[in-house]
Amino acid sequence: MTSQLGPVGQTKMALDTPVLLVDLAVMEGNIRQIAATCRDCKVAWRPHTKGIKIPAIAHQALAAGAIGVTCAKLGEAEVMAAAGIRDILIANQIVGAPKIARLIGLQRHAEVKVLVDSADNVAALAAEASAVGVRLRVLIEVDIGMGRAGVAPGEPAIALAHKIKALPGLELIGVAGWEGHATEIQNEHEKAATIERAVGSLTATADALRRAGFPIAIVSCGGTGTFRFTTRLPGVTEIQAGGGILSDVRYRTKCNADLPYSLTVLTTVISRPNERRIICDAGKKAMSSDAAVPLPLGVEFVRSVNLSAEHARVELDQPNHFLKVGDKLEFVVGYSDTTVHLHEEMIGTRDGRAEIVWPILGRGKLR
After folding, report:
1. How far apart (Å, rounded) are the C-alpha atoms in residues 121 and 314?
2. Tens digits of per-residue pLDDT, 74-118?
3. Which of 33, 178, 268, 284 is 20 to 30 A off residue 211, Cα-Cα?
4. What pTM was computed for the model?
């Protein structure tokens, strides 16, 4: 299970580096906080696992009240199903004969729902489902402002719903959308208004579908950067916030998610070229900086953090005389979604000691 030499029981500062760590107490608190918010607002929680990738963490969310999980890729859904998770939404389109065959086959092991937004894809899914003799539940993805996948709200969604109804093997059960364009809006009033408009177009589409005779039970949206707003909007039945379980620099500083950091990468200082520069043994192959720059803990007067392939370079505005070659330096992860998958394992710590080693089973599941 681990490439470390017996890490469980060691102090985290004794671990070899670079190593991905999660503070279990903080993570468990984040799970409780998101679950409580959903419970108080009477909205179901279906956490996204695209950043977590570890079934054991998903099971903790389920134990706290989550109804199932959301996955980005079919391969991730297969990992979650193999770990005994039954209720899975793939928040993506599954296209192409090989993937569709896998998706339909997976229905015998879990209830795996999928998003659709095109007539051709719907026809292909229906053909395979009916040939195998299973019924595939689908949600129409609606583009609510992000400008990525999805049909336009209103009539285009209704037109696709009629195509679904005419085909065997499929059951339309809901709509889904992602208000991702609102996540990094800093003005609270503007952010709230943008989310309300976006999600309003999703719930209005759900209502229009119901009036047209379609039994829409699920209205799914809401990520870590928006769930404190989406949980309070009428018509939303479930949210997908999952990254906040781990939390990171992007979620806290750019998305203003009130969830403390739990995910870090521990590094070793391997060079001190001068008193204002610190070089560590973890670069882009151990932690990403695409969405937010990792945050070094316990270091003052940081001017910049730059990552190359194998190094982190920390530049300071004032001299640091304390960190020496061989010392450990811990970084809060910049963005968990593009960091966790770089590692083979995550070590859970409690009170500064390694408690458990989790293999990152969803790593590399891109298909």
Report:
1. 48
2. 999 999 999 999 999 999 999 999 999 999 999 999 999 999 999
3. 178
4. 0.96
